Amino acid sequence: MALWYQPPPTLNLISPTLKLNSLRCNYNCNLSILNSRHTHVPEPEPVFASVKTFAPATVANLGPGFDFLGCTIDSLGDFVSLFADSFVRPKEIAITQISGNAVGKLNRNPLSNCAEIVAIEIMNMPEIRSVGLSLLLKKGLPLGSGLGSSTARAIAVNKVFGEKLRKEELELAGLNLEEKVSSYHADHSLDLKKLNFPEKKDLYFVLVSPKFEAPTKKMRAVLPLEIGMANFVWNSSLAVALAAAVLEGNVAGLGRALSGDRIVKPRQVPLILGMEVVKKTEIEVGAFGCTISRCGKTCGSGRVGGAELTAVAMINCEERRVRIGERMMEAFWREGRLKAVVVVNRLDRVGARLVDSKPR
Amino acid sequence: MALWYQPPPTLNLISPTLKLNSLRCNYNCNLSILNSRHTHVPEPEPVFASVKTFAPATVANLGPGFDFLGCTIDSLGDFVSLFADSFVRPKEIAITQISGNAVGKLNRNPLSNCAEIVAIEIMNMPEIRSVGLSLLLKKGLPLGSGLGSSTARAIAVNKVFGEKLRKEELELAGLNLEEKVSSYHADHSLDLKKLNFPEKKDLYFVLVSPKFEAPTKKMRAVLPLEIGMANFVWNSSLAVALAAAVLEGNVAGLGRALSGDRIVKPRQVPLILGMEVVKKTEIEVGAFGCTISRCGKTCGSGRVGGAELTAVAMINCEERRVRIGERMMEAFWREGRLKAVVVVNRLDRVGARLVDSKPR
């Protein structure tokens, strides 16, 4: 997925209505833009001495929305600080500090780390010639959040240059990125649509991440190449029911839709020790629905080959969160001898944002 | 599809979230109800001397919503008048008059006519023992409306008995019905969800019905048994985009979603002489999108083996309707030497309704 360039403010879906057009269009127009700019376009001056961005964690492949539906979680994500640094070679980004979760786990080889590649792709744009950047990353994700991290960096890099880089250029960077690190490239537009969950209603996510690494390739390998008509109709209408439930703020309906996928999750869940029991447990103890989220391209964790997994349950009140989290942790331990981290957070309604900036 | 029992007030989708549950539940609880009622339940007295119902035409299989998404068209449908008739044998329905379109085309063999079967199934319910009904049908559909007709009858029969028959019982009748006349039985719940198109916005349908009968079996035969993952993701997200566009009143988005199906329509459209050109034409002359609608189970026309077809274009203002209709008619004639009937109507926002009733 190439959601990174623009984080989902609430619940988002990729609108395929523009997919081919925008994808083709982006490639063509951007390549020509790049060529022309190579000679003519003036270099954008950094307009900020430093910027700090936050990108919330993303639950990807939401229920029946495999490869097109995700949402963001409040108060859980990555902070990226970035500043123009004359000690850094032009067009380069030096990661001067990594703090928070997953420290040491991050792969510092730029070509195997989505987040770095996104930033590098942007810095590689011809109009940027003499500026180098220093990057401070604070990982706030104890789980495979998918796309949060690279999103924050892309936004930060763009902010430094006063958002001179156009959406299409960020998209182009994202596409190049995907080709480099992804074993699977869907025909996706980067055009996002937003589904607003009603402001007046509450939606909480119980996120339980076992210490278990599912190899991305194995998780991909169990995906069916072909889907039977009955399951296709079922999942399509389920995805619509999910979207309608979101817009109505119908958490019960959302939960049912979340749990009802017949195509992807039934094949992936058995690969995760204890997950089947965890799913049952969540429903038993009053969650409205349960699914798994994983980092499709390992962008969030910045690791290639392995992806963290998270069991995601939805509830509409805080009371049950402790009990549900505990029961899910117990189930992972009992069934798979897996330790798990539990986080409960609200639905994020803002998305990736600039949290601080200092003008030059 | 089993939409018949309750027509979509505006744009509806079958919510699969309850499918298995409600389907199984309906079967079980109803069968037990029937058994128990067989001995204990008093016969419901007709509370109306006569009732008249209207069921608007239904555009079925809307765009990517194959077998789960449809909408109803204003001022176009079937009228059904029904009255308790002591000259009719108990538990029987006598069709005393058929007028309007498709007269003479209707199959009067109850077992091959959905509409009759629905009514008969209801009359067969054990609690009805001594009442016979006369039915007057006025067909208002020049096109394969799918489900309008049987809906009107089911509602009428129920009205006569003061709506004593429970939704589950009507559903059970619908399920029996489907098994009898359908060559294809999807695992569908009869639970409907409604997607409201904003009241303030206008939505018109240009419905062009060529004099062409596509054999239902042939149209079914071209359906793929298996669907590739990329097309599955595409169509699922397209269906969600369609639902979102409806709720937003975004006619342009709705049109794109309507036209974007990659799985069903691309296989069926070539079977209809001239349809490919008609689709292009509609878009060229300013329609927002185009699809085909056909009567999946031939319930609407009451004919088995053949189903009428309609090219459906969406517009948001009346001005272009004449031009678009004419161009579509021309295309059908030019490409396939097919005469066509054009009807332009608004989206129906009410659904099947009681239009008149006389108390006993």
TrEMBL record, chains A, B:
- A GO BP annotation: amino acid biosynthetic process
Q: Which UniProt keywords apply?
A: Amino-acid biosynthesis, ATP-binding, Kinase, Nucleotide-binding, Transferase
Q: Which residues form the GHMP kinase N-terminal domain?
A: 129-182
Instruction: Enumerate the SUPFAM superfamilies for this protein.
Output: GHMP Kinase, C-terminal domain, Ribosomal protein S5 domain 2-like
The cross-references to Gene3D superfamilies, in alphabetical order and at most eight, read: 3.30.230.10, GHMP kinase, C-terminal domain
GO molecular function terms listed in the Swiss-Prot or TrEMBL record: ATP binding; kinase activity
The record, for Pfam families, names: GHMP_kinases_N
Question: What protein name is recorded for this chain?
Answer: GHMP kinase N-terminal domain-containing protein
What species is given as this protein's source?
Quercus rubra (Northern red oak)
Give the taxonomic lineage as stored in the record. Eukaryota, Viridiplantae, Streptophyta, Embryophyta, Tracheophyta
